[in-house]
Amino acid sequence: MKNLIESLNWRYATKKYDPAKKLTGEQLATLLEAVRLAPTSFGLQPFRVIIVDAPDLRTKLRAAGYGQSPITDASHFLVFAAKTDLGIKTVDEFIGLTAAVRNQPNDTFNEYHKMILGSIANNSPEQNTAWAARQAYIALGTLLTAAAMNEIDATPMEGFDRKGFDDVLGLEKLNLTTAVAVAVGFRAADDEYAKLKKVRFPKEKFFIEMK
């Protein structure tokens, strides 16, 4: 396995996938567990990840994704969806889970419960959904790194009709809305983008050191 920097240099936003190459169950499980373990504010995980396997759904998503081939051709397609109903029910469920996992009474976490709920209550529903989407992006970054470390190609995607995605997947009834998506699989041998040099600003221009 490559080290982290080698892996990040190896990866790129794959444009053309080999439809015949599929992730093993173990590879997919590794990526999903990396997402599940990703950090989120308060540990609340205010989003869900939809694993879209059905070919008909992926075809419809491709139409809503302006025809981008990775949606249908990659081994797997994941949609990160932000919760739109953040409130006391979400916080109660999280505190209950925390108490159960740590084998402590719920009231041990009363102050933490109040802090989380207070933070959510100070925002509008739209602000909370935007915040939830930002947490999803943290998990996406974790997935991209895990994929690179395991020599799995991945393409993060924002260029699609979000309402179209929501409609295809029926997310409104689940109190979710699409934040971002990612295709994962293996690059096609003739993907010309794989041969291009990675373009990043040099350290001197990118980092600002304040002493």
Kindly summarize this structure in a few lines:
With 211 residues, this protein is an alpha+beta fold. Helix content is 45%, strand content 14%. It has helices at 4-10, 25-36, 55-64, 70-73, 88-101, 110-121, 125-149, 162-169, 203-206, and strands at 47-52, 76-83, 153-157, 176-185.
Provide the descriptors you would attach to this structure in a database record.
211 residues, alpha+beta, NADH Oxidase, 9 helices, globular
Description of the molecule:
By secondary structure, this protein is an alpha+beta fold. It has a single domain (4-206), classed as NADH Oxidase (3-Layer(aba) Sandwich), CATH 3.40.109. The chain has nine helices and four strands, in the order ααβααβαααβαβα. It has helices at 4-10, 25-36, 55-64, 70-73, 88-101, 110-121, 125-149, 162-169, 203-206; strands at 47-52, 76-83, 153-157, 176-185. It is globular, with a radius of gyration of 19 Å. The model has no long low-confidence stretch (mean pLDDT 97).
Instruction: Enumerate the strands of the largest sheet in spatial order, edge to edge or round the barrel.
Output: 1-2-4-3
Radius of gyration: 19 Å
DSSP summary, beta strand count: 4
Number of spatially distinct domains: 1
Helix % is: 40-55%
Layout of helices and strands, plus pairs?
Layout lengths: L3 H7 L14 H12 L10 E6 L2 H10 L5 H4 L2 E8 L4 H14 L8 H12 L3 H25 L3 E5 L4 H8 L6 E10 L17 H4 L5
Antiparallel strand pairs: 1-2, 2-4, 3-4
Helix pairs in contact: 2-7, 3-8, 5-6
